[in-house]
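Task: sequence design from structure.
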């Protein structure tokens, strides 16, 4: 029987739980909403997905190699709210105490760690389930790698990625390069939205071919 590797994008769910839940506090008045939300998500994941191996991955503190490549990377984001920052270390302690291996690797993001583990798992014949709300990780989806979102109950296999974004997983990097990412403060091509990006990739096959045929593209963008 095939074994399963379950990977959790802890950083993604930390923020989503904080903003999705009411202002929960303990008897001492300390904020606990994000802790409650993430721990519930982890319990639900283990109930829904029987995994042989698992890990919960968070961003490490400090800058990453992307900040060195592009100084404006995520520069538009406000500082972490104090009520959320106060919950980070207690949450990490609670995750470890519940038996989850927890990973934070300096110099890279949680996405990078998850991507590396997913690909290594595939090489070893594992099926991989990634729990995240981050669209960037859709590029990892294959017949053996699936994305699940416990907050929306969404499950993305290769066909699901194509249906949602208009491009297959192996073209998600091309797609994201064209549309950019306002959340990360990464610009795309001016006036190119999701529909146009998907149309071009469908028509030309790849970003490289889109660039090669740039002179043929008309309309407002051309």
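Answer:
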């Amino acid at each position: 029987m095939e074994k399963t590797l379950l990977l959790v994008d802890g950083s993604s769910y930390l923020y989503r739980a904080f903003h999705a839940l009411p202002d929960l506090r303990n008897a001492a008045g300390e904020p606990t909403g994000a802790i409650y939300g993430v721990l519930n998500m982890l319990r639900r994941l283990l109930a829904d997905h029987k995994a042989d191996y698992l890990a919960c991955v968070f961003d490490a503190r400090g800058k990453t190699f992307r900040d060195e490549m592009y100084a404006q990377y995520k520069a538009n984001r406000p500082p972490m709210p104090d009520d959320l920052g106060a919950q980070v270390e207690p949450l990490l302690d609670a995750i470890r105490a519940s038996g989850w291996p927890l990973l934070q690797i300096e110099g890279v993001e949680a996405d990078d760690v998850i991507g590396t583990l997913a690909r290594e798992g595939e090489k070893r014949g594992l099926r991989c389930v990634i729990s995240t709300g981050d669209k960037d990780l859709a590029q990892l989806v294959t017949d053996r790698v699936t994305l699940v979102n416990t907050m929306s109950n969404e499950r993305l296999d290769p066909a699901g990625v194509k249906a949602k974004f208009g491009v297959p997983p192996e073209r998600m990097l091309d797609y994201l390069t064209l549309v950019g990412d306002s959340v990360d403060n990464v610009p795309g091509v001016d006036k190119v939205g999701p529909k146009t990006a998907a149309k071009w990739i469908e028509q030309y096959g790849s970003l490289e071919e889109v660039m090669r045929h740039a002179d043929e593209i008309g309309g407002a963008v051309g």
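DSSP finds nine helices and six strands in the chain.
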